């Protein structure tokens, strides 16, 4: 199968000292009492870790200034490679007539927008050169999970060179954009993300990017486009100026206990096919649902229930979206296993290219 490939909770380690039992001589427990590390020491060490991180990566973080007919705008970004490419959000530069970036040392550069993708809200800028000390930030491939300490860097509310701390609060989230698209595989964090932070990096204490900061959706709830998604899309934006994404042509709903009962399913698993738009890849291949009623509740009934794609179990809309975005490509044929009339049936769906939203 082809790929379409932060406070912190601190664990205080308490050393437990125990006496050794020497047979035939003496059995005597140790007299030392286990001691927790002083809280002020822990706070100092944690703060120092973030201070070190800041010193390490701030030179790679930029302020993005946009001049447009609709008025000026501002966001953040970070150095992606040694070829002058800078990552930011598509929504930061979408109306740009002129873009300038400012590095942490105060240097300004004029930037060209060379690639944008509305479906992932990613964009790539290009400058002629970057100042010394502005090293590319690596995209994390592994080593982070829920609870991992992270920091969001950028220019919130115009406050340049800011850092906020937190943790990875959740993974594989879906985030709905202002254009009513859903970005799969986003990273949830409690690190502060405000206006102006958009496009900046969300990094581990090792300085690896786990996500591209995008937006906040409530107190202590922020989201970033995942490193995995960025790794897939950014090279394509640099090469082609845009990115193609697979389109399955299906609307789905997670199977809840109510939907499972209404459809005579043994357990609530998989996703129910609600609609298959006319002319789409799944039209005539997968069975869509009809509106029905169960115990006085309006529900969708009668449609196929997708339980796996290419042998990979699917238990939520997020899982389906993530699989399609990261592991498939347009024009690829996938095996979709569904529950239909009490039987497991495997159908083949040939993916199309996701339509241009401006078309």
Briefly summarize what is shown.
Among the domains are: 59-126, Trypsin-like serine proteases (Thrombin, subunit H, Beta Barrel); 246-353, Pdz3 Domain. The protein has five helices and 22 strands.
General description of the model:
The strands form five sheets. A six-stranded antiparallel beta barrel has the order 1-2-3-6-5-4. A six-stranded antiparallel barrel has the order 7-8-9-12-11-10. Strands 14, 15, 18, 19, 20 and 21 form a six-stranded antiparallel sheet that branches. The protein is of the alpha+beta class and 359 residues long. The longest helix is centred in the first third of the chain and has 19 residues, at 39-57. The protein has five helices and 22 strands. Among the domains are: 59-126, Trypsin-like serine proteases (Thrombin, subunit H, Beta Barrel), CATH 2.40.10; 246-353, Pdz3 Domain. The chain has helices spanning 39-57, 90-93, 227-240, 257-262, 317-327, and strands spanning 61-67, 73-79, 85-89, 98-103, 108-117, 122-126, 149-154, 162-176, 182-189, 201-204, 209-216, 222-226, 246-247, 251-254, 271-275, 290-294, 297-301, 305-309, 312-313, 333-340, 343-350, 352-353. The model is unreliable at 1-31 (pLDDT under 50). The radius of gyration is 25 Å and the shape is elongated. Residues 246-342 form the PDZ domain. Keywords: Hydrolase, Protease. It comes from Halorutilus salinus. GO terms for molecular function: serine-type endopeptidase activity. This is Trypsin-like peptidase domain-containing protein.
List keywords for this structure.
6-stranded antiparallel beta barrel; 359 residues; 6-stranded antiparallel barrel; alpha+beta; Thrombin, subunit H; disordered N terminus; single chain; Pdz3 Domain; elongated
